[in-house]
Design a protein that fits this description.
Deoxyuridine 5'-Triphosphate Nucleotidohydrolase, Chain A, globular, 1 helix, mainly beta, 4-stranded antiparallel sheet, single chain, about 150 residues, EC 3.6.1.23, 10 strands
Length: about 150
């Protein structure tokens, strides 16, 4: 298990990420707001958490939507999954978009997203004149069909 050092604005109510069940892959990220934030239908907002991470080199934190917010309210993470690199030291903020039909209100302490800690593999990129052949080849979107 990796350790992520966290600096937080605890005096203002920042919430340390937490896994809600033993089998949870994602830990919840909560909003830290001075006052309620309303995201109108069709609009987006950057929501602060009051958290600052020191992610170990070779890892990233992915920010993903909470399924309940998406299913019940149409609220999701705009750049999903958002990536927080190991060398970033600024405040963690979540870009939420309201795809629902009604305005959505966020209060300080509300669970707004989840974070996944994941290993990172960096590649070497090499220029070539040809690529190996595959059965799919250059077939793009939908080229493999939708039925068995």
């Amino acid at each position: 298990m990796e350790t992520i050092n966290i600096k937080c604005v605890a005096s203002k109510g920042a919430v340390i990420p937490e896994y809600k069940t033993a089998g949870a892959a994602g830990a919840d990220l909560c909003a830290l707001l001075n006052e309620s934030l309303i995201i109108p239908a069709g609009k987006f907002a950057m929501v602060p958490t009051g958290l600052f991470f020191e992610i170990p080199e070779g890892y990233e934190v992915q920010v993903r939507p909470r399924s309940g917010l998406a299913a019940k309210n149409g609220v999701t993470v705009l750049n999903t999954p958002g990536t927080i690199d190991s060398d970033y030291r600024g405040e963690i903020k979540v870009i939420l978009i309201n795809l629902g039909e009604s305005d959505f209100t966020i209060n300080s302490g509300d669970r707004i997203a989840q974070m996944i800690v994941a290993p990172v593999t960096q590649a070497t990129f090499s220029i070539t004149d040809s690529l190996s052949e595959t059965e799919r080849g250059a077939g793009g979107f939908g080229s493999t069909g939708i039925s068995k």
